[in-house]
Specification:
Length: 525
Amino acid sequence: MYKYDAIDRQLINERVDQFRDQVRRWKAGELADDEFRPLRLQNGLYIQRHAPMFRIAVPYGMMSSAQLRKLGHVARKYDRGYGHFTTRHNLQLNWPKVEDVPEILAELADVEMHAIQTSGNCMRNITTDQFAGVAADEVIDPRPLAEILRQWTTFHPEFAFLPRKFKIAISGTREDRAVTWFHDIGLHLQEQNGEVGFRVIVGGGLGRTPIRGQIVREFLPWQHILTYCEAILRVYNRQGRRDNAYKARIKILVQALGVEEFARQVEEEWTHIKDGPATLTQAEYDRVAAHFSAPAYEKAEEVEPPAEKAFAKWVDRNTHPHKLAGYAAVTLSLKPHGIAPGDITSDQMDAVADLADQYSFGELRISHEQNIILADVKLSDLHEVWLKANDAGVATPNTGLLTGIICCPGGDFCDLANAKSIPIATAIQQRFDFRGVQAEIEIDEFDVAKGEIPEESAIKLALVICPTMDEAAARALFHPAALFAEDSPPPDSPKPAEDPTVPVDPALQDGDPAGPPTEAPLAQS
């Protein structure tokens, strides 16, 4: 994985010192709340319903065991002993104190981590396939180019205050596990006639207006990826709406102009910067790619697994084919029943870091499905990993199933939410697991929509309760009342106790529960 050089370390340390001074000035009354707000947001600090929320970046989902231990330490020392992994590979702390955040940033800098651009109307964390570099169906490893994009987007002066947040995903596999069709920019690595390049997709997204992205260039040589993305962002930055946060994403602009006209404007803009200083060279690619060399794999033999039903079920659901014979990628599920999906305690972080050290070369991944991946586990070690993961509470065999829900924190924490998502997620798990529904839905029993649905159909659920999805759309997608039998009312979801040591100034709170703002807020995630 990528290791910081002297320039990286200097930038991060300077940013810590800068934010420490900004917090000092705000507490002294030298910065007004409105002045402090954009500064803290681009350092990952929100003010939510009950307390501040702090979001830490995990670039393209890769981290070391030392970094995960540091996250566990930070959550234990400055929060309530747990964190929440998000769909952009980041970790959120839900109860830190504002005045502690500079110290948290300083501790993160010690292990080459930060919170830069995890919020605000800027280019956010680059995401990719959680199995990048080891997937059996991989055509090209996307990690070096994901790191190059990360470096390019960080502190980019032209795109620090876009009309709205901006998200980029890159994939190098046949199966699009990075969900590139539903990002502001989606990049598919491919080969044509021996040349490596990208299919460029623009204007995808979910929320209240789900739209599948559209292709603006079928093949772009890899050397031009930065200049072409810059051309896309310039068109968006000039023409994206700033009068309505709910119409400010690039997907709305692409729909308004039409993909042909949007692509024409991008190509015209690109003529001014194509072959300019941001054009990538082979030497620069090789410099970054050297950080992603293969670990010291051993010759691993195929083994006969123990004849345990529970273990076999876990292997079937929570392991993924590896490009190297004798190895597998293992998904550690953060979806146990009764716990908010994506939540992980400090003790669990320590346990998972130990597993990474013992069985996966000290590295791990965070998936957009809010799970943790050990990418390089010997088949002969799977049983030991399962036993230890089970002891740590991260071995629920529900990866890819209805009960392995992707879920936002919802109204229990988020200032923008219009309902509570966690109790609904819990109810779904209880309902379907109680009936023994794990690998498939019994169509005859549940009579799903009385349609002709094949029994082998997999059902996955992403649960988001947010004003960026309007009520009518949410009801059309999912009606929670249908989960409960007449004699089984929905479970209660107690409001989290507010921390009396964390005063929340209403003037600082993010979001606009009363309705759409007249200007695009920096606060919405």
